[in-house]
Design a protein that fits this description.
The chain is an all-alpha fold. It has six helices and no strands.
């Protein structure tokens, strides 16, 4: 979990996971909770958590019919490979795919 500055400075408390899940459930039943840091760490680099979450977002958008033909997986991957340094492409592609898999396995 990446804590907001207000939490790390001691000005606020971060809610526990149960409270977060409950708050989200009040708004939608279409949420997918993915521990991006954990998934990225399993891939060997916790810094790839943001790309894990992009993959999760792409799968959730696809599941909800929001991606459509204008935003296929190939487009996401093209942008990732064009934007990250060459030495991190494989890691980021794997992180993206792992994020998608995490959402696709949530029923």
């Amino acid at each position: 979990v990446i804590m907001p500055l207000t939490v790390t400075s001691g000005n606020s408390l971060y809610p526990d996971e149960a409270k977060l899940y409950s708050a989200v459930a009040q708004v939608t039943d279409q949420a997918a909770f993915v521990n991006g840091s954990e998934v990225a760490s399993q891939l060997g680099n916790a810094r790839a958590a943001n790309v894990v979450l992009l993959g999760a977002l792409s799968a959730l958008m696809e599941r909800l019919g929001e991606a459509g033909p204008k935003l296929p997986v190939a487009t996401w991957l093209k942008v990732i490979t064009e934007r990250v340094p060459a030495r991190y492409i494989d890691l980021n592609v794997a992180a993206f795919q792992a994020g998608r898999e995490a959402v696709l396995h949530i029923v």
